[in-house]
Amino acid sequence: MSEEPVGGDLSRLRQLNASAVLRELRGDQPLTLTELSKRTGLSRASTEDVARDLLGRGWLAEVAPALGSVGRPARRYRFNAGAGRLLGVDIGGHKALALVTDLDGEVLNQTRIAVDPEAGRRERLAVMDRCVAKALAGAGVEARQIWSTGVATTGLVDASGKVMLSDSLPEWSGVDLTAHVRRLVPGPVRVENDCKLAALAETWRGVARYAKDVVFLLAGLRTGAGLIIDGKLHRGFANWSGEIGALPAAGWLRAPEHLTSWLETTPQSTGLASGSSGGFERVFLAARGGDVRAVDAVGDYVRDLAVGASALVLTLDPQLVVIGGGFSRSADVMVEPLRRELDRWCLRTPEIRVSAFADEGVALGAVRLALDEVEATIRTGLRP
C-alpha cells in the first residue's frame, strides 16, 4: 500500500490505509501493529495512526495480553464484529424468516412466521414486518443499529430491489421491497432472488466454501437454481441467470406434480397438508421405507429435476452441484437417482453435495448480501 498522497488527496489515502488494515483483521486471529505493518506494507507509524483512528470509530477492539506474557506485551487488535448489526430477511411462499447478526454474520436472533401461500401483497408484507420487528426485539437491537439489510424473495428482481415478475406469489410482481424495508430499518437495503442468495450462502459458510464453480439447486415447493462462477455469484446481464425453469422442456414446472400425485392418492397418516413442505415429506419418508409407489414418485421428480440440472452442468462444467431447499432434508433418497440421471446426460458428472441449511440458507445468503454492502464501505469509505 503506497503511503504517498495521490494528487494531494490525504483523505482518500487515509481511507485506503484504513481499508487495508480492516481487511487484514477480518481473519480469526488478532494481530499486533508490527504484524499489521508487514501485511499492509504501511510504516509502523502509519499503522499505529490508523489503528488509533479505527479504535475511536469502533471498528477495532484491543485484545487483552495473553496470560503468562513476559515483559511489556505488544498490543493486539481484532475486528470489532459487535460494532454494528446486520439483518437478513427471506420472504417466501410459506414463511417469513429474519436473522439478526453481528458484522461477522453470527446469528443473534432467528425469527420465523408462517404465511398463507395464498396471501396477497398487503398481508405478506405485514407478516414480514412482524417478523422483522420480532427478530429485532429478540436480539435486543433497535432498528437504528442495523447497518445493512439483505432481502431474499422469489421471482425476478431488478437492480433497484423491485420484483419484476413472480409467478408463485399472488400480487407480488411490482412490489418495491427496497422502499418497503427502508421504512422498517435505516441504512442500505439490497434485494435479490432467493435461489441466488442460497447459492451465496453455500459458498460463504456451506458445503461449497472451497469451490469456485457451483450449480445450486433449490429443491422444494418451487425449483430454482443459483450459479457461482469463478467464486462469484453470477447474476447475468439483466439479473435473470439460472432461470432455466422458465423453459417448459426443462421439466422443473411439472416436477413437484409427481409428489403431489402420490399425496393425493395416499391416505394421510398425519395432520400435515399435502401442499406444505411437511406434507411432501410424507413422500420421501415412504420412499425411504421402501414404498414402491413413493420410490417411483421420487424417481419421476428427480428425472424432471435432472433435465434442467444437466443443461446447467453441461453449460458450466461446475465442480459441485449442491442440493438445497426444503426437500434437501430428504436428499438421501434423491442424491443417487440424481447422480444416475446426470451420468446419462452429462459428459462429466460433478460431485453432488447436500446443503446443511435446508430452507434457512436463503436467509443466511441475505445476511451475506448485507455484509457485502458493509465490506464495500470498508473498501470505499468508512461508516461514520
Walk me through what this model shows.
The chain is built from 11 helices and 15 strands. The protein is α/β, with parallel strands linked by helices and 384 residues long. The protein has a 5-stranded mixed sheet. Strand 14 (320-324), helix 10 and strand 15 (351-354) form a beta-alpha-beta unit. Helix 1 crosses helix 3 (44-57), helix 7 crosses helix 8 and helix 7 runs antiparallel to helix 9 (292-316). The longest helix is centred in the C-terminal third of the chain and has 25 residues, at 292-316. The two termini are 23 Å apart.
Brief sketch in words of this structure:
This protein has 384 residues and is an alpha/beta fold. It has helices at 10-25, 33-40, 44-57, 121-139, 177-182, 194-205, 255-264, 277-288, 292-316, 335-345, 361-380, and strands at 31-32, 60-63, 76-79, 85-91, 95-101, 107-114, 146-153, 156-157, 163-165, 189-193, 214-219, 223-229, 232-233, 320-324, 351-354.
Tell me the total number of β-strands.
Answer: 15
Q: Main β-sheet: number of strands, strand sense, barrel status?
A: 5 strands, mixed
Mean pLDDT: 90
Query: What would you call the shape?
Result: globular
Multimeric status of the protein: single chain
Order of helices and strands: HEHHEEEEEHEEEHEHEEEHHHEHEH
Outline the low-pLDDT stretches: 1-8, 269-274
Helix percentage range: 25-40%
Count of helices?
11
Which radius of gyration do the C-alpha atoms yield? Answer: 24 Å
Task: Give the distance, in angstroms, between the N- and C-terminal Cα atoms.
Answer: 23 Å
Strand content: 15-25%
Strand order of the largest sheet: 6-5-4-7-10
Class computed from helices, strands and strand pairing:
alpha/beta
